[in-house]
Structure formats: C-alpha cells, structure tokens
C-alpha cells in the first residue's frame, strides 16, 4: 500500500487538519524560551509511589480532594485529566454531536478550541472579540443556534485581559438551558479574585477549566482540572479514558497541591508579577514597541513596528517569542512569556537597539 493510499484512508477532517502550532513543534535553538507561558525554572519532586505494577485510580482521590479544597469546591465538582486540553476535548465529546452541534469561541484566543473541534469533526463558529477584546454579546446571541459549548478564555490567551464579569453573567443568562459556558481559567492564579468557580452553585451550565501547567510550573506533568456541577462531571466521567493519569503524575500533582506546594506556587506567582511590571515598563521605552497591553497573566502582548524582523532578530539570539500576527486584530503583535528577571533583561537588551517606525520605514 502506498503512502498516498494511507492518506486517503484517513478521515477527511483529519486530512484537512493543521496541527496545533505548539512552541515545541515550531522548534528553534533558543536558550531563552519565552513562547509557551511556562514557568521558567523546574520545581523538583520525588516520586513516593512504587506501585507501577498496578493500574492507577481513574480519578486519584487525594488529587481530587486537594484540588477541591484549593478551589473551594466539593470533590464531586472536580474532574482531573491529562491537561486542561483534555478537558476542552472531553466536553466536545460528551456534549456535541458531530455534524449537528457546534461550539463557539471569540478570537483572538487560545488555539486548541478550533483544533479539538476539527479533530473530532464538529462545527466551530467564531465571533470576533470587540476592539477592546471584550465579548461581542449581540453577535454571540445571533450565532447561538445549535451551539452546545461556548468557550471563553479569561484571562484571555494571548491578549492577557479579563472578560467583564457582567458580560459573563449576560452570556450565562442567554445560554441557560441551551449551551454550556466553559470558562478557561488556565492563568487564574495570576488574578485569583477573578475566578468564576464561586458561580457554579448559581449556574448549572457553567464549566471552569484549570491547569497545573502555568502558575504551578508543571507543564511537563500534563495535569488539568474541569470544575462543574455533578451532572456535568458525571457525563465527562463516561467519556474519559479509564486511566487518564499515570501513577507518577497523580503522585506529583498531589504534592503540588499540598499546603507547601500551593505556598510555593503563590511565591512564584508574586515573583513573576513583579517581573511583569518590570518588563512592561522596559518594553514601553523600546523604540520598536508601538504598544504594550496590560496583562493579568504570566505573559505580555505587545505591538511592534516591524514584528517579523523583531521576532527573527531575537530568535537568532536564542530568545524565542510567540508570533501572534495571524490572529484577528493582532497584526504586528508578539507575545512574551514572563521568565526570570535575567531572561526579561536579555529580551530587553535585544529589543533596545531595534529601530522605531520612522527608521524601519526608511530602511524598507
Ligand atoms: C496552556 C493553556 C491550556 C492548556 O493547559 P494544559 O493543562 O497544559 O493542557 C488551556 N487553555 C489555555 C488558555 C492555555 O493557555
């Protein structure tokens, strides 16, 4: 059988698929990785479980109990999965009929909502955010027919802004009885007061996604959480794999969610926020930076006068940023993850000599 035939055997939607452009897939020989919103330093852990001959628990009890306590919810409102990305997909698999139902989200936003929808073969609709990156509620209301899931990322990746709580309430009212609202809170530890977890008792159709990949410094662990009321969690438990987390993952996640682990996460978060303040200030004084956007996360979005050259110049110096040019409304924008202070300084030292608008136009 030729390679050609193998390709033809695949599902049409999979053939048409562009895989998620993860930072790791894009490559680069960097030594300053500021493109994946990772915590810049590794936090050490020891494995305490030596029972790898046995299958793990489907939903490891200690991890669930500790996350529930951390999120101020009950254990039956918590599902743990292989990253928040698996949560995004489980919701589609549990709630959307391929070829019939749709999901909706508001670009510019996180790339996995469309990738998961395409992989599973369900329609996705997009309603672009307004110029201030808030929800366009009237446009969403018009598009809701057949929509089962509305993904809202807050704070939003890659823009860094929070979605207005009043708008989120309005969205929850207009979707009541029709669709679930999925609040992606991957970065909520950088603005914990903004969480919607406390709204779960009021809204049976609200879902909150969380992860250990960002503030908890465990992107390599692949561990995330879906918070929702029991009827939603019970449906997700029907479609999740029997052993979604390996024993070492559950072991380390439980340690990360101990009182000590949470205290360490909060200390790291404070340090990154201080670095963010420094970086925003320093970016504002670079000639090549046109605009720096405020952030409630561990990254900063900025608009540059010649973003492709800026990206390439830093890339060649081993400083890897994330290009956001292709997202609607983000022409000229690069996203910079907050690293250590030294890494932020390296980025600024590389940006400082680059010319502003007038000079780069002369050169072009
Ligand atoms: C990083 C990220 C995720 C994915 O988290 P994982 O737990 O690593 O799968 C989900 N949503 C957003 C907005 C993210 O930035």
From TrEMBL:
The modification N6-(pyridoxal phosphate)lysine is found at residue 214. Pathway: Amino-acid biosynthesis; L-histidine biosynthesis; L-histidine from 5-phospho-alpha-D-ribose 1-diphosphate: step 7/9. GO terms for biological process: L-histidine biosynthetic process. Pfam families: Aminotran_1_2 (PF00155). Its EC number is 2.6.1.9. The keyword Cytoplasm does not apply. Residues 32-351 form the Aminotransferase class I/classII large domain. It is an enzyme of class 2 (transferase). Keywords: Amino-acid biosynthesis, Aminotransferase, Histidine biosynthesis, Pyridoxal phosphate, Transferase. GO terms for molecular function: histidinol-phosphate transaminase activity; pyridoxal phosphate binding. SUPFAM superfamilies: PLP-dependent transferases. It catalyses: L-histidinol phosphate + 2-oxoglutarate = 3-(imidazol-4-yl)-2-oxopropyl phosphate + L-glutamate. InterPro entries: Aminotrans_II_pyridoxalP_BS, Aminotransferase_I/II_large, HisP_aminotrans, PyrdxlP-dep_Trfase, PyrdxlP-dep_Trfase_major, PyrdxlP-dep_Trfase_small. Its cofactor is pyridoxal 5'-phosphate. The keyword Transferase applies. Belongs to the class-II pyridoxal-phosphate-dependent aminotransferase family. Histidinol-phosphate aminotransferase subfamily. Homodimer. This is Histidinol-phosphate aminotransferase. It comes from Winslowiella iniecta. The lineage of its organism: Bacteria, Pseudomonadati, Pseudomonadota, Gammaproteobacteria, Enterobacterales.
């Amino acid at each position: 059988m030729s390679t050609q035939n193998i390709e033809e055997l695949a599902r049409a939607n999979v053939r048409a698929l562009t895989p998620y452009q993860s930072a790791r897939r894009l490559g680069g020989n960097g030594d300053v990785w500021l493109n994946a919103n990772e915590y810049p330093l590794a936090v050490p852990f020891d494995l305490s479980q030596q029972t790898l001959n046995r299958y793990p628990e489907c939903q490891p009890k200690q991890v669930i109990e500790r996350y529930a306590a951390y999120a101020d919810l009950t254990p039956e409102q918590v599902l743990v999965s292989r990253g928040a990305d698996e949560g995004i997909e489980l919701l589609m698999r549990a709630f959307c009929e391929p070829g019939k139902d749709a999901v909706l989200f508001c670009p510019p936003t996180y790339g996995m909502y469309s990738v998961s929808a395409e992989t599973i073969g369900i329609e996705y609709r997009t309603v672009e955010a307004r110029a201030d990156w808030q929800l366009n509620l009237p446009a969403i209301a018009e598009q809701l027919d057949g929509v089962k899931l509305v993904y809202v990322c807050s704070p939003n990746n890659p823009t860094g802004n929070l979605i207005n709580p009043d708008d989120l309430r309005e969205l929850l009212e207009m979707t009541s009885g029709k669709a679930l609202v999925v609040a992606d809170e991957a970065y909520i530890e950088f603005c914990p007061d903004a969480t919607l977890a406390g709204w779960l008792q009021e809204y049976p159709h609200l879902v909150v996604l969380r992860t250990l990949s960002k503030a908890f410094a465990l992107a390599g662990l692949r561990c995330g959480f879906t918070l929702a009321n029991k009827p939603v969690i019970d449906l997700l438990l029907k479609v999740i794999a029997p052993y979604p987390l390996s024993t070492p993952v559950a072991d380390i996640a439980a340690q990360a969610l101990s009182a000590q682990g949470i205290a360490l996460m909060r200390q790291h978060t404070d340090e990154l926020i201080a670095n963010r303040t420094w970086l925003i200030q320093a970016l504002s004084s670079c000639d090549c930076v046109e605009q720096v956007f405020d952030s409630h996360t561990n990254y900063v979005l900025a608009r540059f006068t010649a973003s492709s050259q800026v990206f390439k110049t830093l890339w060649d110096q081993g400083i890897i940023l994330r290009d956001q040019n292709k997202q609607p409304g983000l022409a000229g924008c690069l996203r910079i993850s907050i690293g250590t202070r030294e890494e932020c300084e390296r980025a600024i030292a590389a940006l400082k000599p680059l010319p502003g608008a007038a000079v780069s136009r002369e050169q072009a």
